[in-house]
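Hello,

Our lab assistant flagged a job as stuck in the queue for most of the afternoon. It eventually completed. Since we weren't sure the result was trustworthy after the delay, we are filing this so someone can double-check. Below is the sequence as submitted and the structure that was eventually returned. Let us know if re-running is recommended.
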Amino acid sequence: MINVVIAAGYATRLGELTKNFPKPLLKIGESTILGRMLDDIDQIPDIKEHVIITNHKFAPIFEEWKQKQHYTKPVTIIDDGTSTNETRLGAVCDLLFAMEQLHINDDMLVVAADNLLFFSFQEFVDFAKEKGTSCIMCHEQPSIEKLQRTGVIVVDDQMKVLNMEEKPQEPKSHWAVPPFYIYKKEDLDLIRHSVENGCGKDAPGNLAHYMVDHTTIHAWKMTAGRFDIGSLDTYYEAVERFG
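-- returned structure --
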């Protein structure tokens, strides 16, 4: 399994803090946002490589960071060639770019790089192996307002996903979908042709929505919470609470 980290955004909501520096490498205590995530993922036996897809502006910073790391699995930095927020490829196209550049033909763990997690991805990997299908994560979200800003799924008793909507005005459930996915090798052709068949490009949830409509997907219920760092306020809160 290849761990693919989507880290090509420009984090404009963090203003000057990320104007010339990538959000995933912001400090949280003695580590970074990304470092805390990789510390966990690197320990999973099924993972054989970390692939970090970033933009041309931040690629040198990631390369410098990479030289100081000592993970047990190799780390590959992919430069998507963009230099501004206006010319960004979007998360789905970045994933396709990484797959093409590295000729990826293996199961993939695909993660966004701007969350602090309070559970291990090992649980997610074990769930996907048990189900034998591509999988997404989910958690119960009581707030209708927050559900209207994320992906929402409907599942059956076996946690098979029956329906997914992005940012629904009238959510059909309280199952919200965070940006963490496992895509099986058998489904990679669907991913490769997703954009040309109408899949949205910008958010990783666009691909999950597309895949739900085209193959069998199961949803793993998160066993603990996460902290999404999306603004200056949430970053400083993370530093104070977890740093």
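-- support follow-up --
The delay was a queue issue, not a problem with the job. The result is valid. DSSP finds eight helices and 14 strands in the chain. The first helix runs from residue 33 to 41.
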